[in-house]
Amino acid sequence: MNLLGKEKKPFVFIIDFEELSPLIFKLHEAEKHLFWSAPEAQNYQGKKPSEIKYWEISPVAFPQYKKGFGLIQKHIRHGDSFLLNYTQPTQVNTNLSLEEIFHSSQALYKIYLKDRFVCFSPEIFVRINNGKISSFPMKGTISANIPDAGIILKNDSKELAEHNTIVDLIRNDMSTVSENVCVEKFRYIDKINTNKGELLQMSSQISGTLPENYAERIGDIVFRMLPAGSISGAPKAKTVEIIKKTEGYARGYYTGVFGYFDGQNLDSCVLIRFIENHQGQLIYKSGGGITHLSDCKAEYEEMIKKVYVPVA
Hints:
Elements: H1 2-6, E1 11-15, E2 23-26, E3 34-38, E4 41-42, E5 55-59, H2 62-77, E6 83-94, H3 98-104, E7 109-113, E8 117-121, E9 124-129, E10 132-135, E11 138-143, H4 149-155, H5 157-175, E12 179-194, E13 197-209, H6 218-224, E14 233-234, H7 236-246, E15 257-261, E16 266-270, E17 274-278, E18 281-290, H8 296-305
Antiparallel strand pairs: 1-2, 1-15, 3-4, 3-7, 5-6, 6-14, 6-18, 7-8, 8-17, 9-10, 9-16, 10-13, 11-13, 12-13, 15-16, 17-18
């Protein structure tokens, strides 16, 4: 990434959660391996959306989820972590293939790594525009159908604590790669349409200034900020250790990052809202942030609520 950045050659990249199997493709070669779209660019021709005729899910049983939740709370009480993003897999049966889901979904970012996974992410990781770097952590989800949903979300003490923690964590991450770091927008809400109804999600924007030679260090900048704070937790290193011990499955590319570099600027997303082909079975991976204020049943229901396809 540093070499291509120095040469100002466009490329796309996918980095898995554990940073064990990163992929990088020169822009003109990417179509052989993946389709993708971002707000300012894409590499595929759109196809007519397919109807979702059925969408059957089989999440992990609540007692299994509760066991992991209990272990996390034990670590929180011991001071090992104060925010941890706990995720679990859900089996999905539907009439659509991964590629059909890709073409039928609507999202800020869409990625289809052929025959392996599809992701329709609403969450920006980092954007670099003419030397300004910005990150947009997303924390806080509620059904838009609930009366006064936005007010409830903003006034929820657990969601506030969680969001504040992530903003502080990302601000610290940003300060390792840039200067003049500040919170430009705090706790703004976006609406997302899904095949299961509308959701409200809360984000913030943190920005900083990169040195003039940032392009030749583009790989260093991205990797130094991994894993994304919003899908790991704080303190980051210890929390990632706990995640690996308690989740009981491999995240793989889920909660990693995807991005593209156009020769000068970079755009990227966090790989959430993610369906994987696991030996012929579709697996949807989802989760949420756990703090000492978390209620196990509510967190379990939020994990399931996130098993959706965003549609027009």
